[in-house]
Amino acid sequence: MLELSVFDLGLLFALALFAGLVDSIIGGGGMIQVPALFAALPGFPPATLLSVNKFGSIVGTIGSAIQYSRVNKSPWGLVIISSTFAFFASVAGAYLVTRIPTEWLRGALPFLLLALLIFNIKSNAGLVHAPKHNHHKQKAIASTGAGIIGFYDGFLGPGAGAFYKLFYTRVLGFDFLRSAAPAKCLNIASNLGALCVFFYLGYFDWKLGLLMASANLVGGQIGTKIAIKHGNSFIRKGFFILVTILIIKTFYDAFLK
Length: 257
Known about the structure:
One of its GO terms (cellular component) is plasma membrane. By secondary structure, the protein is mainly alpha-helical.
């Protein structure tokens, strides 16, 4: 790891902690953590910084998933099969991103997010737990959605955690609290898939990774307690704020940067 001042290390830790907190409640912590890494370490290979972000997110998300699963029982059969699809799709996406340009997806992303936001606002998705499909159909739909989002996570990635939560609430009919642990497990799987590709290609820094992981873990534990205490309505409001910010950011990155 390049030499960093105590101030820079402290700032990175604080931002990673905040990213873990935000990610544990509504997803999207990478929007905070990735720019922080790129700003603090401009001399690092981008792939190394992305892999460090994935590693930190995995550790923090595991801690959050454990906390959420203690509060609400999760459908582990559904989670395991869909997480497998997310993992392998993410591997494919991460490999493909090294072979083809991503500008077309960057341009389409803010409009896709806007459509999903409008679609979600017009319903009470996430407030009421009312699973929509029978057992076998639920597994098929969950695996398909996990594969699509997992591929996106490996290929590009911004807001993947929010996409997983949106998928569980809007498509499968879960409420926000009961969707939290399954969505976290899918996010862990797709992050791990992309991370395996980065590891294989030699892009990683253990010291930096452990710093970010520890901060993510602490922030995730704090955020999970806040989400459990305040419930679905609080998470829903935060989710809409996050997606709105993500729309603005992805539009800026695609057309104005």
